[in-house]
Amino acid sequence: MKYNNKKLFIEKIDLNKIAIKFKTPSYCYSHSKLKENIFKFKKSFKSFNPLICFAVKSNTNVNIIREIKKFGLGADVVSIGELMLALKAGIKPNKIVFSGVGKTSLEISYAIEKKILLINAESLSEIKEINRIAKSKKKIVSVGIRLNPNTDAKTLKQISTGKKENKFGVNTNTFHKIVDYCKNSNNINLKCLSVHIGSQILDYKPYEKMLKAVSQILNKTNHKFEFIDLGGGMGIKYSGENKKLNYKKYNTAILKFLRKHKVKIIFEPGRSIIGDTGTLISKVIYIKDSGSKKFIILDAAMNDLMRPALYGAFHKTLPVTKSKKISKKTYEFVGPICESTDRFVTLKNFQVLKEKDLIAICDVGAYGMSLSSNYNLRPKPIELLIKGSKIKVIRKRQKHKDII
User: Fold this and answer.
1) Domain end: 272, 307, 322, which one?
2) Is there a single domain that holds both residue 247 and residue 304?
3) Which residue has the higher pLDDT, 366 or 152?
4) Residue 226 shares a structural domain with residue 293
5) Is 120 helix (H, G, I), strand (E, B) or coil?
6) 134 and which of 124, 170, 187, 332 could share a cystine (Cβ 3.0–4.6 Å)?
7) Rounded to an integer, what distance in angstroms lies between the CA atom of residue 84 and that of residue 250?
8) Which domain does 132 fall in, by range?
């Protein structure tokens, strides 16, 4: 995104024109940014050529997944719906891993039938259920075990997944029990050790600690794993205060690990691929002066973008048309939903806004639309893919008649 003659552009498209033609709120994704992110990720880890499985939970638009598939990526899914979506987008089953703590018998059965690469199990009970279903189908199923390495990712507690108090993965004692169980099964092929310690990680050191924990358990386990799935969680720069994750140092740590353990690495990035490709365009409905600050009431709401209400997450917010006049009062950007948590950001020294002006909420490509809802019976926004000077509708705006 950049300003051109005081107007904000995504690639070669003026956001004002998008608002006029497609109305607001509207989700817009930059194809060139998506391509840039994928190429950067591949280049950062080309020394060991990992299998990159995009975390579908971060963005569930089938057209986005199709674009990602064109760059050779697989998929990390956490439900039967996401698995169906990945297959519909054309991702080959041998590039799909199925994660998650609560896979139902139906989901496990479907994954087995589709012959996906791995089912990453997260409990002994789940392994037993996989074995039962595989035995009934007379099939051998490739599985992974998700280890909880008790590693603090130094991120928000709501998106931490690698500490012992989190629900994900198994501890070392259970891990060894599962390895022994799999050895005695004729229907399970234990191929992978999986870990994932959290999301929006900006420091490589928790990854180093995670790799040490994995290395230690491999040294104590008399089993040859084909894959080590390192999950994802790589953060992006939401604000000027955020530092970028040092991929070079993470790559060095993995190479050190691979000198001891001859395995194929799997990654499950989501946010780092799609997060900064997305922008939510919204219109100012009303401006309400409360004395100490002004409420900027938008036509976008927490049902459209849940992250600020759910995590207190920050998203850079920009005027679509620039001016030099700065407001003397603090602006609080809020939505029309009947909840006090329906607020996006509070900003000082923002340019003066008028009713019907447009604003752009940035970096919403990950966990934006995928966390959206119809709360207050609000239809979901339109989604647009921008490629140079072309705009493609990749999901139509919902209508009230569709949800009533």
Assistant:
1) 272
2) no
3) 366
4) no
5) strand
6) 187
7) 32
8) 31-272
Query: How many domains does one find in the chain?
Result: 2
Is 192 labeled as catalytic in the residue annotation? no
Per-residue confidence (pLDDT) for residue 156, from 0 to 100: 52
End position of a domain, from candidates 272, 303, 321:
272
Catalytic pick among 53, 192, 338, 362: 338
Q: Which residue has 């391509």 as its token pair?
A: 35
Stretch 54-75: mean pLDDT: 98
Tabulate helix, strand, coil % of the chain (nearest 5).
Answer: 35, 25, 40
Distance CA 278, CA 59 (A): 10
Q: How far apart are CA 304 and CA 227, in angstroms?
A: 37
3-class DSSP state for residue 326? strand
242, 235 in Cβ contact below 8 A? yes
Cα(213)–Cα(209) distance, integer angstroms = 6
- Residue 322: strand, helix, or coil: coil
E-assigned strand segments in 78-121: 96-98, 118-121
The domain that holds 348 is classified in CATH as 2.40.37.10
CA distance to 283, 322, 357, per residue, from 20 (Å) = 11, 17, 12
